[in-house]
Amino acid sequence: MVRLGSALIAIFVVGSASAFAPASQHAVRSTHVLQMTTTEAKDPVKVGVIGCGRIGIVHLGAINKAPGVVPIVVSNPTVSKAEDAAKKFGVPKFTGDAMEVITDPDVDAVWICSPSQFHADQIKACAANGKHVFCEKPIATDLAETVEAINACNEAGVKLMIGLQRRFDPNFLRVRRAIEEKEVGDTIIIKTCSRDPSPPPYEYVKGGGGIFNDMAVHDLDMTRFLAGDDPIEILAVGSCHIDKSIEDLPGSEAFDTASCIVRYPNGVSAMVDVCRQSSYGYDQRAEVLGTSGMIATDNVYPNTAKIYKNDYTGNADMPFDFFL
Q: What is the pTM of this model?
């Protein structure tokens, strides 16, 4: 490990985590409350960050802006990336070994921003060392490892949160509020779409667990969030239309396009479509049809200006591109 010289936003999920229950069993759902406090803590929460790729850099920037939290060590297998990140964000220590972050006695919580295939083992190592965990999605690349990682955190009494940030997006929260307050009646159908402006590199897709784990997970989680229950049946299909180089990868890693139909209790159904490329820009929307109305989100645009011409009518500018 190398040294470079001399009020946390409380978004951890509190309580026990549970995987989806079988169709015949519905787990009791605990209520988790997002609390943000502005009180100054005498001792800031000390954070270690694993992974200094594109998402790790995003999280380091966010951590540096949050009150009551300070990053004290970063790691990356290519140690020069860890060193560059440490210099950029004023982190005092960097290393090429993730375990040095996890076992650092000064670290209170670990941000896991490594490739998907390493998440489960790193979560379990954090639990074994008594570290709270924020992990980028997915928890793991298969169900067995997912359950093992969740159980490890429960048994160790540490907090685990996964980066499913759309639950905190004001647009999606407004849809959730409309459902809770029965503004559109009882829910009948939920629809979401997630379309990225460009596909990720081959190296990102390989070993990542496939499009359902590394992309559609956001939409599947959002349908669960809006339905307020666990799914009882899922039909999923995928295909490759954009990046033919991934067709040699196993399972759903060979898909760049996918659709899901999800059945929830009380006959509620959800439809999800995802694609790794959208020619018209970043596209993230949700719609809920109820017995007395419908509510839908739109993409976020830089302005409300529209152009009306003989060959085009619509927004003057493309929606904001939040894609990393």
A: 0.79
Sign of the alpha-carbon torsion through 9, 15, 21, 25:
negative
Inter-residue contact 193 to 285 (CB < 8 Å): yes
Identify the residue whose tokens are 């820009």. Answer: 281
Mean pLDDT by 10 residues, the chain (324 residues): 44 38 39 47 88 94 94 97 97 97 98 95 98 95 95 98 92 96 97 93 91 94 96 97 96 97 96 94 93 94 91 88 62
Q: Which residues of 68-89 are buried (b: 16+ CB within 10 A; e: fewer)?
A: bbbbbbbbbbeeebbbbbbeeb
Question: Could you tell me which of 225, 224, 220 has the C-alpha nearest to residue 264?
Answer: 224
Answer for the pair 119, 98: CB distance below 8 angstroms, yes or no. no
Distance (Å, whole) CA 195 – CA 216: 10
Q: Are 257 and 238 in contact (CB under 8 A)?
A: yes
**Encoded amino acid at 152, one letter:** A
Tell me, what's the pLDDT at 34?
45
Distance CA 15, CA 135 (A): 16
Would you say 216 and 258 are in contact if contact means Cβ atoms under 8 Å apart? Answer: yes
pLDDT of residue 98: 98
With vertex at residue 77, the alpha carbon angle to CA 46 and CA 49, rounded to the nearest 5 degrees, is: 15
Q: Angle between the 119-128 and 143-156 helix axes, to the nearest 10 degrees?
A: 20
Burial group, residue 302, by CB count within 10 angstroms (0-12, 13-18, 19+): exposed
Selection from 272, 282, 267 nearest residue 188 by Cα: 267
Please state, as a whole number, how many other Cβ atoms lie within 10 Å of the Cβ of residue 41.
12
